[in-house]
């Protein structure tokens, strides 16, 4: 019934040695699989974070609804302060205006400051609260004192920046997520009224 194997070389391997090799192979495969799963999870988390940051940099922007400048008097031709009406861009998350930075570049040089600084007065007149815009229908009026000849309520300092008739200025708002909005201001060469729409 059973065949007797007389040749020792034809006998199959059995015993503890084979079991140890098998267990070692299983352990190596399990460790390799664990490393691959951990790496895949880390890459997925990193990709999600990068995607969210990229989306914020594109969508969390401010829109300039209107911009204007004011002169202390028409004889001086020097703009006292700038006034912007701002809104959220469509699809933007909440924007805290106190965390927004602004940069102006013109013929008198460059100035960078936060909207929460003493040179700026923020007035949210539609929606929002505590200088935070939460909806695209929210509107905020931001007044920026350029010179000392201004009478803006809530402003205690000024930038000492000269902006006169015929000057141009590039103004950039940057939200906390890094999204930027740039607008150009051109002062007319002749101003006959104290309020100028730019």
From TrEMBL:
BP terms from Gene Ontology: archaeal or bacterial-type flagellum-dependent cell motility
Primary subcellular site in the record, as a coarse category: other
Signal peptide: none
Keywords: Archaeal flagellum, Cell projection, Cilium, Flagellum
Protein location: Archaeal flagellum
GO molecular function ontology, one term from the record: structural molecule activity
Pfam families tied to this protein: Flagellin_arch-type
GO CC field: archaeal-type flagellum
Entry coiled-coil feature ranges: none
Family: Belongs to the archaeal flagellin family.
Known function: Flagellin is the subunit protein which polymerizes to form the filaments of archaeal flagella.
Protein name: Flagellin
Organism of this sequence: Halorubrum ezzemoulense (Halorubrum chaoviator)
Lineage: Archaea, Methanobacteriati, Methanobacteriota, Stenosarchaea group, Halobacteria
